[in-house]
Automatic annotation (TrEMBL), chain A:
The system is composed of three essential subunits: KdpA, KdpB and KdpC. Part of the high-affinity ATP-driven potassium transport (or Kdp) system, which catalyzes the hydrolysis of ATP coupled with the electrogenic transport of potassium into the cytoplasm. This subunit binds the extracellular potassium ions and delivers the ions to the membrane domain of KdpB through an intramembrane tunnel. This is Potassium-transporting ATPase potassium-binding subunit. Coiled coil: none annotated.
TrEMBL record, chain B:
The gene is kdpB. This is Potassium-transporting ATPase ATP-binding subunit. The active site is at D302 (4-aspartylphosphate intermediate). It comes from Gemmobacter lutimaris. Its EC number is 7.2.2.6. One of its GO terms (cellular component) is plasma membrane. It is a multi-pass membrane protein. ATP binds at D339, E343, F366, T367, A368, Q369, T370, R371, V372, S373, K384. The chain crosses the membrane at residues 35-55, 61-81, 214-239, 245-271, 575-598, 604-624, 644-669.
From TrEMBL, chain C:
This is Potassium-transporting ATPase KdpC subunit. The gene is kdpC. The system is composed of three essential subunits: KdpA, KdpB and KdpC. Its main location: membrane. InterPro entries: KdpC. Part of the high-affinity ATP-driven potassium transport (or Kdp) system, which catalyzes the hydrolysis of ATP coupled with the electrogenic transport of potassium into the cytoplasm. This subunit acts as a catalytic chaperone that increases the ATP-binding affinity of the ATP-hydrolyzing subunit KdpB by the formation of a transient KdpB/KdpC/ATP ternary complex. It is found in: Cell membrane. Belongs to the KdpC family.
Length: 553, 670, 192
């Protein structure tokens, strides 16, 4: 079977699955007024008040809850050596690492400056990190739900604590149970026993780390978290035993981000609009996938002078059982969605292949993280609508909301922040010993390692060019801060936009209004994403992956 | 201000002052109003300082000098575009100002009056204006009737009547009374009158940024900041690669990337939009109103004069049973002989040739009380007029009255107005007067519908008549038997439904509706109250213009959008020109990105910068003229503009930069 | 403040259900239905001693065994990882050259399969390609003193397509292959 078939099955199949899931998520997250589903009462009991909140109240509750998430996990990680469920007796962690890791999982990033099987107790993995994988993802879904309600013209945005429960218990938990059971059937470990010790055929001792992998892995994929149970993430045979678990994991990576678009469309009552957005996002990932697969089929450049077979492409950092296509495919999916788990080592990808994941994170909206991907796309929509709206001769408006200076200011500020976090961070570390001493590879590739790390942190992705020695204090603190800013600015600013939109007189649409449901708008949106999202990073790309590619012998 | 032939922008009369202004506008305080151009200016200044250093300590002086030259030229071109747009109004403003300077008024104090300069006239003062005088200030006629030549403002030389009371009482400073006299109560303080506003408008002095312009400025400034980060981090990146980048080159890259094109043309586009409106003889009180015009969803149009020709015309004679056609026609003709109204003339025209009024006959004129007119020939009283009024003249035969009523109902249902004709004690029949819908108006409404604009016809007619005319004219809806309150109500209802409404009006009782509507166009002949309430004044008193005003508003926004798209799309080519040029020293392999095959790194950088600068004057005509606008749906409009300015913006600079590169390297400049 | 208290309650509820409940369900199911894979796909020998995991590569250096792909972490299953070297890094070239030498050289006509000279992502890839196995048949057969064809047959029998019809190439699990070798084509006793 050729590459195209695998890609078609995984991307196309998930796209189909996302349709009913989107409908279900609308039902679960946003029960029609007066038709509160049977869970509402239970969630009211748990969360206390359930009154509608305005955008500021909703945001405050969200931030308070996220601060709580950070604190709980910070405490668990910092004290793991004294806590139970630690069969392999993992010791204390460096304080900057605790900060970085707590920030990383709270922000749905899952950048890992540690190797799970080396550093973390099972309690840290489950109660600290896996818990955050649920609730940070739920935070994203809740935020999108609230945003969509505002755009739909509802008087309030809903109630955050209700929404976060709906997302956790009605969306993530049931899906996670189903997928995790399939993963178990696919041969994935799920045990609380400590490491096994084997005597190899040649008589050596081999310690085999294992653990409750299936549960952890599943929610890491579904919630676009991406943090691996083991250091090398989903390349580890125990975290990804077969081609089939690998395929299922890729489905899990893009499923909820895709469904979020449909949910958004249903809440704002514009499914054709959602279909246009979905198509634009799909077009982007297909282009990146095609690029990655083609570039990666080139043989490893280091072997140019050696008698190494060239048919299988670049196999450095890849697993044979997962199939030839899936390394680059996974690399694109995981970075298109802010997931960040890896199915092949990104550092060892061919230079131009490595550019594809970076581009995915620069845009960060071609599906993007659960909930937040669609929110990021909303920022591009605001800009696209603004420019396109003028071109049809009207004050720009989006679904009946006039887009004026305030909205444009917040949208452009969010895009600006993304650029500053990535390029500013990279500049600081690339020009100084902070970064220069930590790169592993010479030349432009080392620059790519630094650029990738900040890109991944700002995009809340979490994957890495792992050759980088990123376990240092400066790296932990810098990326920790970048992750926090990269998470909350793109939530706060869109909320402010929606708050401003809600305060205005709404207009009706006519033939003279910019349509947001046709191919022309899709094209405009695509161009906006390219120009506002990607052009900014072209110089950096030129000095990283492009320079490396063109310097190859 | 007369409608003037379009001035060429290369008119030396305009060019010379514009060139002078380009330099004057370099002042930071003026420049800072446009953040992107201010940034460009700052960048140029920095490059100049660095040039001095190069001159002292050595370096590629020739290359740097050219960079500095083109950077300054970019700023100057931007100033030039704005100055040129302003210049067109300045000449007109100067003429108006000289009119204003010589204004004097005869202020009435008790029984006498004294001649004072207009600047001393205050609100509430009463002035006497006699034949040959210029009206010294805006005001309301409180006594007298006069014919006034308003050519100074409207360019229309036919005099108009201004009289106390009613809807023709407003007079404007600077217009001339050509017969009779009037007493005028001043309604505007010095400096706030119509003339002052016009001067300010055509000069662009009071031009506050419109909401959309502010939003666009925010977007462009944001983009500038983003590119500042993208370019500002490059030295650090280069340091990693063990090299360094020359600052003048980075400045060139930065200025090439930031949206200078649209920023330079932004205010010119706005001024030109207002100017187009002014030359269309419509005065907008603010740019905001022009923008809002592009957003209109619903147009309220008065039937009479806008949708139909002002006058109804006779189209048919309908005799009662037993009456011969000829008898009715003759009676109709006779009864209209003394009727000088267009309706009366149309009856005579339809009736055809006949005898003149017999000797000794007396014309009975139409009055508002009797609502009939006719001819007395001895004892014979031939009458025609409003049906109910004619029926009251005599106790006609019951059967004839019944038949007349059914006849006139039929006419009303068909959208016509019936007149009854009687000869003494006999009812003869009815005349069908018809509103004649203006030719071509139906197509206009169809156009508007394609643009998503709904038209609502406002009429005092009864619903039956209104429905028939509405159907014939192709409007989307109508408001019959409309009172000013109904109008206001309708506007509020539309607005509550999220629509933006435009209307025009002239009477005092239109003022609330004009104020409520999003775009209210007051007729210049209208009352002072109406002119105050509306946010535009139509100097030609042509309500059909609303349609064009909408078009001008749309064109203004489209021009902005199109040039923004063009400007931003250009960046792709500029990247491909400059990035390989500046990075090739760090990584020779990156020369592969030089897809245009530019001659040398220096030539590539210069060419991109030159293109970036000269595209501004090249686009000035477009900015002033506005992009081509045709009434069509938003979807088609977007495809068209995206195709021309988006795709064009991607491709044009590749061609342009390559050509400039050939010239630059050919001339040995780099 | 009320946000904080309510937040705590929601945090507790999610902790109980999403961590406790979820883990318990998956763990219970796994331990009952698929205990073998759930505990790491461990392989035991006749004596019941653990000799490794079916899913984890282990070092083989003896010529009579098939050798796995190189490992950047020396087959440390408690600290896995890839080389993370850039694909053009000269270290990769050196490592590959050394491996080619260990495999007895390769030529343009008989190039070494790429998987034998590239480290996997985790350094624990338990498989080699069918081509990679066939490349080693001669050495293994020679070391074991058996017919190469017998080894080839064994290799071919054990090779499978990991993704059925979705994948083109076939792969062999090195530990299982070597166990089968020991069982079916045992080397002459104490050949060393």
């Amino acid at each position: 079977m050729d590459h195209a078939t695998v890609i078609l099955f995984i991307v196309g199949g998930t796209a189909l699955l996302s349709l009913p899931l989107g409908a279900y998520m609308k039902w679960a997250m946003d029960p029609a007024p007066g038709q509160a589903n049977r869970w509402t009462a239970l969630f009211q009991t748990i969360g206390g008040a359930s009154a509608d909140q305005n955008w500021k109240r909703y945001l405050v509750t969200l931030l308070v809850f996220n601060a709580l998430m950070f604190t709980v996990t910070f405490v668990i990680l910092a004290t793991q050596q004294w806590l139970p469920l630690n069969p392999d007796e993992r010791g204390a962690l460096d304080p900057t690492l605790v900060f970085n890791t707590a920030a990383s999982f709270t922000t749905n990033t899952n950048l890992q400056h540690y190797a799970g099987e080396v550093s973390m107790s099972y309690l840290s993995q489950l109660a600290g990190l896996m818990w955050l994988q649920f609730v940070s993802a739920a935070t994203g879904i809740a935020a999108l739900t609230a945003l969509a309600r505002g755009i739909a013209g509802r008087p309030g945005l809903g109630n955050f604590l209700m929404d976060v429960q709906r997302a956790s218990f009605l969306v993530l938990l049931p899906l996670a149970v189903v997928v995790a059971l399939l993963m178990v059937l696919g041969g994935m470990p799920m045990t609380l026993q400590g490491s096994a010790v084997a005597t190899t055929l040649e008589g050596a001792m081999q310690t085999i780390a294992r653990g409750p992998v299936a549960a952890f892995l599943t929610i890491k994929q579904l919630g676009t978290n991406g943090g691996g149970f083991f250091g090398p993430n989903a390349t580890h045979p125990l975290e990804n035993p077969t081609f089939w678990t690998n395929a299922l994991a890729m489905v899990a990576i893009i499923l909820i981000p895709m469904a979020c678009v449909w949910m958004f469309g249903r809440i704002v009552g514009r499914q054709r609009h959602a279909a246009v957005i979905f198509t634009v996002m799909t077009a982007f990932i297909l282009v990146k996938i095609a690029g990655a697969v083609i570039f990666e089929s080139a043989p490893t450049p280091a072997f140019a002078e050696l008698a190494v077979s060239e048919e299988t492409g670049n196999l450095e950092g890849k697993e044979l059982r997962l199939g030839a296509t899936t390394g680059p495919l996974w690399a694109v999916l995981t970075t298109a969605t802010s997931n960040g788990s890896v199915g092949a080592m990104h550092d060892s990808l061919n230079p131009l292949t490595g550019l594809m994941p970076m581009a995915g994170m620069w845009l960060n909206a071609t599906f993007g993280g659960v909930g937040v991907g669609m929110i990021n796309m909303f920022l591009y929509i605001v800009v696209a609508v603004f420019v396109a709206g003028m071109m049809v001769g009207r004050t720009p408006e989006y679904l009946g909301h006039k887009i004026e200076a305030k909205e444009v200011r917040f949208a452009i500020l969010a895009l600006f922040a993304h650029a500053v976090l990535i390029l500013g961070g990279t500049a600081l570390f690339a020009a100084t010993a902070l970064g220069q001493t930590t790169v592993q590879d010479p030349g432009a590739h080392g620059f790519s390692e630094i650029l990738y790390e900040f890109t991944s942190a700002a995009a809340n992705n979490g994957s890495g060019f792992e050759g980088l020695g990123d376990g240092t204090g400066p790296w932990n603190i810098a990326t920790g801060l970048v992750m926090l800013l990269g998470r909350y600015l793109p939530i706060i600013l869109p909320f402010a936009i929606v708050g401003s939109l809600m305060a205005k007189r709404r207009t009706t649409e006519s033939a003279g209004t910019l349509g947001v449901e046709d191919a022309t708008f899709g094209t405009m949106l695509g161009l906006t994403v390219v120009i506002f999202g990607a052009l900014t990073f072209l110089p950096a790309a030129a000095l990283g992956p492009l320079a490396e590619h063109f310097s190859l012998p | 201000m007369a409608r003037q032939p379009t001035q060429s922008i290369f008119d030396t009369e305009l060019l010379a002052p514009a060139l002078r202004q380009s330099v004057v506008k370099l002042h930071p305080r003026i420049l800072v109003r446009n953040p992107v151009m201010f940034t460009t200016g700052a960048a140029a200044l920095l490059a100049t300082v660095l040039l001095v250093r190069t001159a002292v300590s050595g370096g590629d002086f020739l290359f740097e000098v050219q960079i500095v030259f083109w950077l300054w030229l970019t700023v100057l071109f931007g100033n030039f575009a704005e100055a040129l747009a302003e210049g067109r109004g300045k000449a007109q403003a100067a003429a108006l100002r000289s009119t204003k300077a010589e204004l004097r008024g005869k202020r009435i104090k008790g029984d006498s009056h004294q001649n004072v300069p207009a600047s001393e006239l205050r609100k509430g003062d009463i002035v006497l204006v006699e034949t040959g005088d210029l009206i010294p200030a805006d005001g309301e006629v409180i006594l007298g009737v006069a014919s006034v030549n308003e050519a100074a403002i409207t360019g229309e030389s036919a005099p108009v009547i201004r009289e106390a009371g009613g809807d023709r009482s407003a007079v404007t400073a600077g217009t001339r009374v050509i017969s009779d006299w009037i007493k005028v109560k001043v309604t505007a303080e010095p400096g706030t009158g119509f003339l002052d506003r016009m001067i300010a408008l055509v000069e662009g002095a009071s031009r506050a940024k419109t909401p959309n312009e502010i939003a666009l400025t925010v977007l462009l400034t944001g983009l500038t900041l983003i590119f500042l980060v993208a370019v500002g981090t490059l030295p650090a990146f280069a340091a990693y690669a063990g090299g360094s980048l020359a600052v003048p080159v980075l400045i060139a890259l930065f200025v090439a990337l930031i949206p200078t094109t649209i920023s330079a043309l932004l205010s010119a586009i706005g001024i030109a939009g207002m100017d187009r409106l002014i030359r269309f003889n419509v005065l907008a009180k603010s740019g905001r109103a022009v923008e809002a015009a592009g957003d209109i969803d619903t147009l309220l149009l008065d039937k009479t004069g806008t949708i139909t020709l002002g006058d109804r015309q006779a189209t048919e004679f309908l005799p009662l049973s037993g009456i011969r056609d000829a008898e009715l026609i003759e009676a109709a003709r006779l009864s209209s002989l003394g009727d000088e109204t267009p309706e009366g003339r149309s009856i005579i025209e339809l009736a055809g040739q006949g005898e003149a009024a017999p000797d000794g006959s007396a014309v009975v004129g139409f009055t508002a009380q009797t609502r009939v007119s006719g001819l007395d020939i001895g004892d014979r009283k031939v009458r025609k007029g409003a049906v109910d009024a004619v029926l009251k003249l005599h106790a006609f035969e019951a059967a004839a009255v019944r038949e007349m009523k059914s006849l006139t109902d039929r006419i009303a249902r068909a959208g016509g107005t019936p007149l009854a004709v009687a000869d003494g004690t006999r009812l003869l029949g009815a005349i069908h007067l018809k509103d004649i819908v203006k030719s071509g108006i139906k197509e206009r409404f169809a156009e508007l519908r394609r643009m998503g604009i709904r038209t609502v016809m406002i009429t005092g007619d009864n619903p039956l008549t209104a429905a028939a005319i509405a159907a014939e004219a192709g409007v989307d809806d109508f408001l019959a038997e409309a009172t000013p309150e109904d109008k206001l109500e309708l506007i509020r209802k539309e607005q509550a439904g999220g629509k933006l409404v435009a209307m025009c009006g002239d009477g005092t009782n239109d003022a609330p509706a004009l104020a409520q509507s999003d775009v209210g166009v007051a007729m210049n002949t209208g009352t002072q109250a109406a002119r105050e309430a509306g946010n535009m004044v139509d100097l030609d008193n042509n309500p059909t213009k609303l349609i064009e005003i909408v078009g001008i508003g749309k064109q203004l926004l489209m021009t902005r959008g199109a040039l923004t798209t063009f400007s931003i799309s250009n960046d792709v080519a500029k990247y491909f020109a400059i990035l390989p040029a500046i990075f090739v020293t760090l990584y020779p392999g990156l020369g592969a990105l030089n897809v245009m095959g530019l001659a040398s790194p220096e030539s590539a950088i210069l060419s991109a910068l030159v293109f970036n600068a000269i595209i501004i004057p090249l686009l000035v005509p477009l900015a002033l003229r506005g992009v081509t606008y045709r009434p069509q749906s938003a979807a088609r409009q977007l495809i068209q503009n995206l195709g021309i300015y988006g795709l064009g913006g991607l491709i044009a600079p590749f061609v342009g930069i390559k050509l400039i590169d050939i010239a630059v390297s050919g001339l040995g400049l780099a | 403040m009320s946000d904080f208290i309510s937040g705590l309650r929601v945090a507790a509820a999610t902790m109980v259900l999403c961590v406790g409940g979820y883990t318990a369900i998956i763990l219970g199911f796994a331990q009952v239905v698929t205990p073998a894979t759930a505990n790491g796909s461990l392989v035991t020998n006749g004596d019941g001693k653990i000799v490794g995991s079916r899913l984890i590569a282990q070092a083989f250096t003896s010529p009579q065994y098939f050798w796995p792909r190189p490992s950047a972490v020396d087959y440390d299953a408690a600290g896995a990882g890839g080389s993370n070297l850039s694909p053009a890094n000269p270290e990769l070239t050196e490592r590959a050259a050394a491996l080619i030498a260990a495999y007895g050289g390769a030529t343009e006509e008989r190039p070494i399969p790429a998987d034998l000279v590239t480290a996997s992502g985790a350094g624990l890839d338990p498989h080699i390609s069918l081509e990679g196995a066939l490349f080693q048949v001669a050495r293994v057969a020679r070391a074991r003193g058996v017919e190469p064809s017998a080894v080839t047959t064994l290799v071919r029998n054990m090779a499978y397509a990991p993704g059925a019809f979705f994948t083109d190439g076939r792969i062999v699990n090195v530990l299982e292959l070597n166990l089968a070798l020991d069982a079916e084509l045992a080397a002459p006793a104490d050949s060393d």
